Amino acid sequence: MSNILIVEDDRAINQLVISGLKIAGFHCFQAYYGMEALRIYEKEDIDLILLDINLPDSDGFSLFRSFKHTPIIYLTARDGLDDRVKGLNLGAEDYIVKPFALPELIARVQVVLRRFNQEESLFVRDELRVDLGKRKVWLADSSVTLTYQEFELLAVLIRHKNLALTREQLIDLAWGFDYAGDERTVDVHIQRLRKKLELHSLKTVYKLGYRLEV
Q1: How far apart are CA 130 and CA 137, in angstroms?
Q2: How far is CA 154 from CA 89, 188, 210, in A?
Q3: Measuring CA to CA, which residue among 11, 71, 2 is closest to residue 36?
Q4: CA–CA separation, 31 and 7 (whole Å)
């Protein structure tokens, strides 16, 4: 389980981010001030930092080098091109502007952790085992063959477990933002996953989409 430090002085946003990340399976630490973040960082084994720029006692740019070689994603209301370029040139892995969609934030966190090989790759639920890294699936010790898109959708559901995702969000995350097909293709692929994997915990969320409950 990866440890993520959220450095954000807006308490509502801080708590929202932590709630979403915890549901997705991460262990979180929260800080509202730069100095508080540094104390936590020196004490705990942190795998990733979500860092605001405008903090009460410091700014995220000046704090960057204090976090050594830990990957950082800026999470800020500062949407100017100069700020984006500065943050990325410092070495940040990503730059996310508020307001943001929680599923997208979680997806970006997972991308960075995969890049640093710190995301857990094995998912186990009853008789189902999924190796996200090797793209292999077993049910009751028998290998299950999934199409490329079926596996992509399953991986998104696993990485966002316990979160209700709309069909539009599932398409963006599993098919890509440039996908031009019908949202009903999500329903077809969900039915196939349920049948192939006996995935009774893959729930339909009325008038919204789907959620993998674990």
Answers
A1: 5
A2: 34, 13, 11
A3: 11
A4: 5
pLDDT tens-digit map of 30-60? 999 999 999 999 999 899 999 999 999 888 8
Q: Which of 95-109, 118-132, 145-159 has the lowest mean pLDDT?
A: 118-132
Does the domain at residues 122-212 carry the CATH identifier 1.20.1730.10? no
Helix (H) or strand (E) holding 126: none
Amino acid letter at 98?
K
Any idea where the domains of the chain sit in the sequence? 3-115, 122-212
Residue 138 in contact with residue 144, Cβ under 8 Å?
Answer: yes
**Amino acid making up residue 168:** E
Residue type at position 33: Y
Q: Which fold has domain 3-115?
A: Rossmann fold (3.40.50)
